[in-house]
Amino acid sequence: MPIEVSTAIQTISQDQYHQIDRQVLGIAFDIHNKFGRLLEEEFYKSELQQRCSHLGLQVTREQLIRVRHGHFTKDYFIDVWFEKSIVFECKCAQSITPSHRGQTLNYLLLTETHHGSLINFRPLKVKREFVSTQLTHELRRKFTVSIYNTDEESVFQRLMDVAVAFCSDVGLGLDLPLYRQAFMTLNGGPFIKPQSVPIISGDQVVYEHSMNLLTHDIGLAVTALPTIAETRLHLQRLLNNTLLAGIVWVNLPLNELRFEFLRQNHVG
């Protein structure tokens, strides 16, 4: 299997999830009332685990999930994993952000579970948000492949082959860094890690931009956006202010794996 969880996953109903969530939230309030909101995230996770275990709940800290395809692997760790079925992410932040929600959703998709909770201990009162999904691994592997402005160079075809194979195995909808890292690792070549690309204005270097490179003069952009025209416009503007010859753009919303090659044209 491309996604490995080191414990058997149990399926629970929505009612069972809410029952456990209420128990955990009550314990989170007790911890917050006793210790306040200013301690580190690690403390709240540890205290939550101990108190929930004492009540008889099955709790695992830092539950390992491994994505594997060919020679590429990437590990994820769920903050607190209840009853082998519920993702709880504990935060100490000013507020819950879209990236926090995305991280929790990513864990739900990886484990093929449907219910999770975000708990934030930093505010004056504990804040909790529900995160849920009905997507399955099977549904995430159903997508079309679209190709635009194909480049003749072998680097473009190689990248397409790698991306299609990886997404057919792992599915779409997961966090973007996973796809960037997988595509670069599986594609091979001299530039596995992001490189510094000079941004040019006139004849001056005004900035050093971190970017994945497939070759010394072809960049890689991986997005998951519905706004094709707007994203293309800004990728082209970025490209035109570098010395790169082109950018291979891979866009992967849930139902499509889209490839386009953007060429340097010096149009602002």
- The helicity comes to 25-40%
Return Rg in Å.
22 Å
Q: Label the CATH architecture of the largest domain.
A: 3-Layer(aba) Sandwich
- Strands of the largest sheet, in order across it? 1-2-3-4-5-6
CATH topological fold name of the largest domain: Trna Endonuclease, Chain: A, domain 1
Counting DSSP E segments of at least 2 residues, the number of strands comes to: 12
Structural class: alpha+beta
Count helical runs: 7
- Give the uncertain stretches in residue-range form: none
How does this structure look, described?
Helix content is 36%, strand content 32%. With 268 residues, the protein is an alpha+beta fold. The strands form 2 sheets. The chain has a 6-stranded mixed beta sheet, sandwiched between helices. It is elongated. The mean pLDDT is 94.
What is the fold's blueprint, element by element?
Layout lengths: L2 E3 L8 H22 L5 H14 L4 E11 L2 E11 L3 E6 L6 H14 L3 E6 L6 E6 L4 H4 L3 E5 L5 H17 L5 H12 L7 E7 L2 E12 L2 E6 L4 H13 L5 E6 L4 E8 L5
Helix pairs in contact: 1-2, 5-6
Could you list some keywords that capture this structure?
268 residues, alpha+beta, Trna Endonuclease, Chain: A, domain 1, 2 domains, six-stranded mixed beta sheet, 7 helices, 12 strands
Briefly characterize the structure.
This protein is of the alpha+beta class. The protein is 36% helix and 32% strand. The protein has helices at 14-35, 41-54, 98-111, 137-140, 154-170, 176-187, 228-240, and strands at 3-5, 59-69, 72-82, 86-91, 115-120, 127-132, 144-148, 195-201, 204-215, 218-223, 246-251, 256-263.
